[in-house]
UniProtKB/TrEMBL annotation:
Originating species: Flavobacterium gillisiae
Superkingdom field: Bacteria
Any Pfam family the entry gives: Exo_endo_phos_3
Designated name of the protein: Endonuclease/exonuclease/phosphatase domain-containing protein
Classification via SUPFAM superfamilies: DNase I-like
């Protein structure tokens, strides 16, 4: 017999007494793994840095430590309310399917029996997005990678060309010398059934801020517009389609790519039919963050949901609440970057330069 995860919490009723209800709960997470490369030199990608003879001296020992570190995080994301690890894990900055196959075999999470949905993307550094899912709860029916096709010559005129302070990033924009196409990550769309209910998930890693935030903004606005187009296509088929879109957007919840191109709203009451709710905008206003630059925090990692998932009717799965997983073991404790996410260094294999994010989906169990 399959176990049903349940969460107990108290809801107020008219007579003033508490009524206890049971809810099935699933955690949905997103995590930028930051340079999850194997040690093998792939001649088709720019991965030379992440090899034993490369600049990072990336050995099997370091690679295996990275896998152990990530598996610890994946096991614990959302554990404050759900004893099970996330049912869904959107991930970015992974080199290939092989590194994910190695990750899900780690002892901490091997018994979760994660499935993998992954496609190679055009990114010249070889980093992709993917979705991990617990097979016992989710049955995928269709999945596809949708390319973001943008050209430098089409957006450069829209950009603010004033000098900017460029953010330090490994994720530089790669542009074709032939036709000026920007090589960036595809958007991954997965549809399937979560405990019998159809769910649509989009996993993203939008173009970086290489060259400066304002100068590169049009590329991410194009990504937001593509995301909106994908959601529109799902909602034309089914206006009540339940859609989650997640990823490292390289923009905060208040930037044009999210607010204008995608049209996400910070308050549930402001979300129109077919609209998108972003629970991470309020967190950003409070100064919380998933990534830091020059001691300034921002939330690049976000999970947003369609209006159909904020109905406050828990007879089917609906959004409950969201969070940033930033436990102390994920934080640098000394040096120049004290307080930042604990990433890889010359002396230590860390976790990532991003904190993971998560939301809960819950449904009343009669």
């Amino acid at each position: 017999m399959r176990l049903i995860l349940v969460l107990l919490f108290i809801v107020p009723v008219v007579n003033g007494f508490g009524q206890q209800k049971k809810y099935a709960i699933h955690t949905v997470a997103f995590y930028n793994f930051e340079n999850l490369f194997d040690t093998i030199n792939d001649p088709a990608t720019n991965d030379d840095e992440w090899t034993p003879k490369g600049a990072q001296h990336w050995t099997s020992k370091k690679y295996n430590q990275k896998l152990q570190n990530l598996s610890r995080v994946l096991l614990e994301i959302g554990s404050a309310e759900n004893t099970n690890s996330p049912t869904f894990i959107g991930c970015s900055e992974i080199e290939n399917r092989g590194v994910l196959e190695d990750l899900i075999k780690e002892s901490k999470i091997v018994n979760k029996e994660y499935g993998i949905i992954h496609f190679d993307s055009p990114d010249k550094r070889g980093i992709d997005v993917a979705l991990l899912y617990q097979k016992q709860y989710f049955r995928p029916t269709t999945y596809t990678n949708i390319p973001l096709i943008v050209y430098r010559k089409e957006v450069v005129k829209k950009a603010n060309t004033k000098l900017e302070v460029e953010e330090k990033t490994d994720d530089t924009l790669q542009i074709s010398n032939y036709n000026n196409r920007v090589f960036t990550r595809d958007q991954l769309l997965v549809t399937g059934f979560l405990d019998g209910e159809e769910i649509n998930i989009i996993v993203n890693h939008w173009p970086s801020r290489s060259g400066g935030e304002k100068k590169s903004s049009p590329f991410r606005e194009a990504a937001g517009a593509l995301n909106r187009k994908i959601i529109d296509s799902l909602q034309r088929i089914n206006p009540n389609a339940k859609v989650l879109t997640m990823g490292d957007l390289n923009d905060g919840p208040y930037n044009r790519s999210v607010k204008i191109a995608l049209g996400a709203k910070a308050n549930k009451a402001d979300v129109p039919p077919l609209g998108i709710y972003n629970p991470f905008e309020d967190m950003a206003k409070k100064g919380l963050g998933t990534i830091a630059f020059r001691d300034s925090w921002d939330i690049f990692d976000q999970i947003m949901v369609s209006q159909s998932l904020i109905q406050n009717n828990f007879s089917s799965f609906n959004y409950w609440k969201a969070g940033i997983y930033n436990k102390s073991f994920l934080i640098q404790t000394s040096g120049q970057y004290k307080g930042y996410p604990k990433r890889h260094s010359a002396t230590e294999v860390g976790f990532s330069d991003h904190f993971p994010v998560y939301i809960y989906l819950i449904k009343e169990v009669k």
